[in-house]
Specification:
The chain has helices at residues 2-29, 35-58, 69-94, 98-107, 109-121, 127-145, 149-154, 156-184, 189-214, 222-254, 256-260, 265-276, 283-307, 312-329. The protein contains 14 helices and no strands. Helices cover 83% and strands 0% of the residues.
Length: 330
Amino acid sequence: MRNSVLFGAFLCFIASASWGAMFPVANHAFHHIDPFYFTIFRYLSVTVILVVLLLWKEGKQAFRFDGKGWSLWFFGTMAFTVYNLLIFWGEDLLGEPGIMVASVMEALMPMLSIIIVWLLSRNRPHGTTLFFVFTAFIGAILVISKGDIKSFITATSDIVPSLFIFIAVIGWVVYTMGGSKFGTEGWSALRYSTLSCLLGTVTATLITIAITFSGYVTVPTLTTIKIVSPHLAFMIIFPGFIALLGWNVGVSILSPLNALLFINFVPVTTLAISFAMGSTLTIYDYIGTAFIIFSLIANNIFVRMQQSGISTKAVRNRLREAISLLQNHS
């Protein structure tokens, strides 16, 4: 059992670290290739790998839709069209600041899922959870605006790309909820990942072809593809194939509550790699990221205490006792 938990933790860590690393890598690639074809080349490759693996593991019968074709297409489009195209398009439009904006938005996924569940079920979360959600959003605003909220609001060139990234992240949250739904119906993580990725990538490819005919982007040359091939290799293997399957398997082992803590590694990894690559980071990047990490951890602890039957009053008393001890020691 212990080995299984460690394996699940390892998979969630690798997935989160990979997602944190993909934004600096993608930003470097966007100096040579547009985000649309970069995404298509990446996920066409991931789709091929998943199809071969599913055929080997579960056979031809696993490719049947079983009357769920439209649902698979919808959830696949949310992830592999809405999320992948918009998050990298928004990052590219923002330039270097888009690296941290995309990473921080990604870290907001657990908080956004709380809001979406609230809207769909009309079951209001606890006030403490809402406080942590609000704190996380304050952190995101600090990173996105770099502390100058007034200028950000008046700058359409920044608002629109940021909105693209925000919509993209909602798309992935919806996709994750779809995975949970299919999991309860007996679908393996591999089957759901493969068929949704296949349908979503087809949709993204058709959109990219249409955008190409409009003249907004052009088909990359062989020279361009050769230049970005190391970036594509990383994006296909780690944030693509390994992270997609690893996260779903890790969540099934650890439970969503435990796995969500690993989302903290997304902005942390992005910060570390961006710093190592010489990117310019502001104090607001660090403060905003700290706000989000604090909110995720604190809300996770609060939910655990609620599940254990510990009241909010008891939590406050424990906090007061801890503060009192610290004051006595000082």
